[in-house]
Amino acid sequence: MNDIGIGVVMVPFIAILDHIAIVSAFAKGRTFDATQEIITLGIANLVGSFFGSMPTTGSLSRSAVNLSSGVRTPAGGLVTGVMVLLALAFLTPAFRYIPKSTLAAVIICAVIHLIDYSIVMPLWRSKKIDLVPLLVTFVACLMWGLEWGILLGIGLNLSLLLFSIATPSVKVALVPPGKQHGGYVLVTPAHGVSYPSTSHIRATIRKAGLKQAGGSLPVVIDCTFIDTADYTSAKGIKGMVEDFQLRGQTLVFLCMKPRVLQTVAALHDGITVCSSFDALPEALADGETEVGIETVNGDTLHPAGDLVVSTMISTPTSDTSDAANPLLTTTTFLDEK
């Protein structure tokens, strides 16, 4: 077992990746169920373990050879198996005279058409960062072996994914004074607030409050795209609210969903919530009224103290376009990343 080392972990990973890669390569645009393929592979290996078989998976090179040879049905596997058994029984002594270069040439000719060169330029034109995992995995597989190359590629992809989650796009819009309000700063996070992104979003909102608003204009956080919030993000929101309260600057949460409000309200009993853009001017002009909330937008919430909510409540809308929101017709957008 000690001699196997990392192979104990990598063999199942490679088997699954190889199997899915074969299906993807030969699907030719047709859809397939990857879960079904993985279950089938697992059952085959489970049954084979009772008979002492080697780990079962697909082979990209042999599948390519079969395709080039005109195989179209699963019966090709049966024919291949019979030929392998006959070769092992009667032709093994003759194998020593076959040059490895000849076998390599057969495999190269079979799989050369599976190499997708055309993907490089679309990746370069669409999003250059996506080329990094591709090139790193390719080079690592050539230099250090398939196992380490796959691990490095997976780790790099996870790092890029975590970075995008931790630093979401936050749009900052400076809304000039109008007839119904004295102007404010509108901050719109792109997606839900979670543990990795809490610090980034909090720092962006603090920067918007001090720089764009000059520390005096109200700051409105549009929560339309915030579907989830965890305990850490709720603590971050609590600290942010306290920072704004210390310097006497208004902070309003706009269109906050009930489940997010419930999470935040469990830690802080004095946040300003406005249900829609229609109610926002009156909330900014007339101030807020403390009320106890048990339902928001028809969804029941567990009481968690008094919440500060705008005095005018109307039906929320997820449409934040200029046509739906006349307050944003003359805004200045400053994208924060």
From TrEMBL:
<protein>
    <recommendedName>
        <fullName>STAS domain-containing protein</fullName>
    </recommendedName>
</protein>
<dbReference type="InterPro" id="IPR036513">
    <property type="entry name" value="STAS_dom_sf"/>
</dbReference>
<feature type="transmembrane region" description="Helical">
    <location>
        <begin position="136"/>
        <end position="163"/>
    </location>
</feature>
<feature type="transmembrane region" description="Helical">
    <location>
        <begin position="6"/>
        <end position="26"/>
    </location>
</feature>
<keyword id="KW-1133">Transmembrane helix</keyword>
<keyword id="KW-0812">Transmembrane</keyword>
<feature type="transmembrane region" description="Helical">
    <location>
        <begin position="75"/>
        <end position="95"/>
    </location>
</feature>
<dbReference type="InterPro" id="IPR001902">
    <property type="entry name" value="SLC26A/SulP_fam"/>
</dbReference>
<dbReference type="InterPro" id="IPR011547">
    <property type="entry name" value="SLC26A/SulP_dom"/>
</dbReference>
<feature type="transmembrane region" description="Helical">
    <location>
        <begin position="38"/>
        <end position="55"/>
    </location>
</feature>
<dbReference type="Pfam" id="PF00916">
    <property type="entry name" value="Sulfate_transp"/>
</dbReference>
<dbReference type="GO" id="GO:0016020">
    <property type="term" value="C:membrane"/>
</dbReference>
<dbReference type="Pfam" id="PF01740">
    <property type="entry name" value="STAS"/>
</dbReference>
<keyword id="KW-0472">Membrane</keyword>
<dbReference type="InterPro" id="IPR002645">
    <property type="entry name" value="STAS_dom"/>
</dbReference>
<feature type="transmembrane region" description="Helical">
    <location>
        <begin position="102"/>
        <end position="124"/>
    </location>
</feature>
<feature type="domain" description="STAS">
    <location>
        <begin position="174"/>
        <end position="287"/>
    </location>
</feature>
<dbReference type="GO" id="GO:0055085">
    <property type="term" value="P:transmembrane transport"/>
</dbReference>
